[in-house]
UniProtKB/TrEMBL annotation:
<dbReference type="Pfam" id="PF08857">
    <property type="entry name" value="ParBc_2"/>
</dbReference>
<dbReference type="InterPro" id="IPR014956">
    <property type="entry name" value="ParBc_2"/>
</dbReference>
<dbReference type="InterPro" id="IPR036086">
    <property type="entry name" value="ParB/Sulfiredoxin_sf"/>
</dbReference>
<protein>
    <submittedName>
        <fullName>Chromosome partitioning protein ParB</fullName>
    </submittedName>
</protein>
Length: 309
């Protein structure tokens, strides 16, 4: 009898998470998806940002659970069982219920064909995809930012996506691309490595920070601006000294930018979060033991130690 009840419950649960019932979902809803259901809306990511997170999780497992909780809108982790795994929600407890803090959650839109397109969270979800206990079938909760199912045809959908600022249709060199050149799934190998995007992540807090209401893809606009004057390939991003030089050089340039159109954003440097002065304390923190660059370089070292296949 109990087995029959369990079977019925599982069937009902499966029905309400299947595409057949997707028409009940509306903008603003929190939905649970697997990472392989999400389609990217940009071609590149900063590999080093992702590797920093993987390194952080490798040496600080509590942080991994903390960020899974945060991504689910649950603020942070409260309790972790001995054999806890991030892909088993019953093995750890978050501080709040799912979706309580929607402002911390990543967003998707629904396309005319019913597919889910990721509009925020490409770095975070690529980390979840690549971490040892993650992968394509890793489940996470997201917020539906917009429903485009009333639009007829994918060409019109992508035109509207571009108008709404929900896609970044540029390649790693800032050249325009077509929407059919975008990756079709998460996984770091499906994305190009944007060195400038990584450097924008590590200079955040040193020379700039996100404004209260940031423009979508803010870091990419800044990356386009920085690329005009700085060649990131000249830095040794596998050493502490090389990274320090890169962060310092990029930060000094960001502070010197005087334009009303950062990277084609139609916004000024100040509107895009430019600081008035260099934050030396934040810079030093990056390179301390258990700082972001420290975790990144330690993780890179573990990769170089692995035998070639």
């Amino acid at each position: 009898m109990n087995q029959k009840i369990i079977a019925v419950v599982m069937t009902i649960t499966g029905l309400f998470t299947s595409p057949l019932y997707a028409n009940t979902i509306r903008a603003g809803d929190v939905i649970n998806v697997s990472l392989d259901e999400l389609i990217p809306t940009q071609t590149s990511v900063g590999y080093d940002q992702i590797m920093y997170k993987l390194g952080r999780y490798q040496f600080d497992r509590e942080k991994m659970f903390d960020e899974v909780c945060e991504a689910n809108g649950q603020k942070g982790v409260e309790n972790i069982s001995v054999n806890a795994s991030p892909n088993n929600p019953s093995s750890f407890t978050c501080q709040l219920t799912v979706g309580k803090r929607k402002q911390d959650m990543k967003t998707v839109v629904i396309a005319p064909d019913g597919d889910y397109y990721l509009t925020d969270g490409h770095h975070t979800f690529n980390v979840f995809y690549e971490m040892p206990e993650g992968g394509a079938d890793f489940h996470i909760n997201v917020v539906v930012a917009k429903d485009y199912r009333d639009i007829k045809g994918m060409d019109k959908f992508w035109t509207q996506m571009k108008n709404d600022g929900n896609t970044w249709l540029f390649d790693v060199n800032s050249n325009p691309i077509r929407y059919d050149e975008l990756p079709t799934s998460l996984g770091i190998k499906n994305f190009h490595n944007d060195l400038y995007r990584s450097l924008m992540y590590f200079t955040r807090g040193v020379s700039w920070d996100k404004p209260d209401k940031p423009v979508p893809f803010l870091e990419f606009y800044w990356s386009k601006e920085v690329r005009k004057k700085i060649d990131a390939s000249t830095f040794d991003l596998n050493s502490k000294d090389g990274y320090a030089k890169a962060v310092k050089t990029v930060s000094e340039y960001i502070l010197a930018v005087d334009t009303t159109d950062v990277g084609g954003s139609n916004l000024s440097a100040k509107q895009m979060g430019q600081f008035n002065a260099y934050d030396k304390k934040a810079f030093k923190k990056l390179f301390k033991g258990d700082g972001k660059i420290d975790y990144l370089l330690r993780y890179k070292a573990t990769l170089s130690e692995k035998p070639s296949q």
